[in-house]
Amino acid sequence: MKPKYIIGLMVVAGALAYLIFGGLGQNLVYFITPSEYFQQIDRYQNRQVRLGGLVKEGSLSYNPQTLELRFVVTDGVKEVPIRSSGATPPALFGENRGVVVEGRFQGETFVSQNLLVKHSETYQAPKEGWTPEQVRKLIEETQ
After folding, report:
1. C-alpha 135: how far from its chain's center?
2. Which domain holds residue 53?
3. Which of 37, 116, 128, 132 is the most exposed place for a label (fewest CB within 10 A)?
4. What is the pLDDT of residue 46?
């Protein structure tokens, strides 16, 4: 083969690899846990991060008039209070459910701009002719 074809093939292969692996890295969601935060507080203070864990039972407080949402995220070892405002929480958001919050630590409180909730891995489409009550029951079973 001629050297120009080999070089051209290498450039195309490199560009393709960059597109595949570069795009993959941007779509992965990495987060820290409350325990990881407390191990390196100075590293994460006042920086944009993602914090993940479970919403602690009994900690959820939401005011629909002010859109103020407060709850505690735990990894079973450590806990972090979360404050979020300006948006209605997603329908699948609730106590004892997985959540990833994006935002910043301000002192001991994490101020969130975005909530990502874990959803059921199973999907069952409503059958044709189902009543609204049957669809509502299906939704409740998946939560």
Report:
1. 26
2. 31-117
3. 128
4. 78
pLDDT at 82: 95
Please give the distance of CA 131 from its chain centroid, rounded to a whole number.
33
Same domain? For 73 and 22 the reply is no
Nearest to 143 by CA among 95, 87, 76: 95
The two tokens of residue 134 are 């049957």
Model pTM? 0.65
Do 74 and 105 lie in one domain? The reply is yes
pLDDT in tens, 33-66: 898 899 988 888 878 888 988 999 999 999 988 8
Measure the CA–CA gap between 106 and 49, rounded to whole angstroms. Answer: 12
Asked whether residue 38 is domain-assigned, the answer is: yes
User: Is beta strand 79-85 parallel, antiparallel or unpaired with respect to 68-74?
Assistant: antiparallel
d(CA 57, CA 97): 9
- Do 58 and 100 share a domain, yes or no? yes
Q: Do 59 and 8 lie in a common domain?
A: no
Tokens of 85: 């405002």
